[in-house]
Amino acid sequence: MQNKTTDNMDNNNPTEMFKDSEIITLLGRKSVLSTLKCLEHNGACRYVDIYNTIDVSKGTLYNNLENLVDMKLVIIKLDGRKVIYELSDCGKQILNFINKLTDYYSITNK
After folding, report:
1. Is the pTM of this model over 0.70?
2. Long-range contacts of 69-78, Cβ-Cβ distance < 8 Å, separation of 24 or more
3. DSSP 19-84
4. pLDDT digit string (tens) for 19-78?
5. Cα angle 91, 31, 44; round to 5
6. How far apart are the C-alpha atoms of 40 and 23, rounded to whole Å?
7. How far is it, in rounded angstroms, from Cα 1 to Cα 16?
8. Among 47, 53, 67, 98, which residue has the fewest nearby CB atoms (within 10 Å)?
């Protein structure tokens, strides 16, 4: 696995931390991937590694999976593989905001 240090990340702005067991569900795999690619392009996250995996719901982001609590990682299953991204504080804020929007629209559209 590649180096997972956060030396190049902006740690000056405190943000709301995700709970260790928190699961962020977005609108689907394409939305998740588009969001991560946009964050990566803007320097808010970076690709770290891929693992093979099973039993992870399609289109679901997992934060702090498998004791990766202090590494600011988000893991998404994509075509049977676990794709790992490392987030800056800005990236975490953006994903948290998207999660709140998703929750809002899922409640109002029922």
Report:
1. no
2. 69/20, 71/4, 71/6, 72/6, 72/9, 73/4, 73/48, 74/24, 74/36, 74/45, 76/29, 76/32, 76/33, 76/36, 77/53, 78/29, 78/33
3. PTT-EEE-S-HHHHHHHHHHHHHTTSEEEEEEEE--S--TTEEEESGGG-GGGTEEEEEETTEEEE
4. 333 334 444 455 666 777 777 777 777 766 655 443 344 444 444 343 333 446 666 666
5. 15
6. 20
7. 28
8. 67
Choose among 21, 31, 27, 40: nearest CA to 87: 40
Count of alpha carbons within 13 Å of 6, Cβ hemisphere only?
18
Domain chopping of the chain, boundaries: 23-108
| Type of residue numbered 20 | D
Token couple for 50: 């891929």
Question: Who's near 42: CB < 8 A, 6+ residues apart?
Answer: none
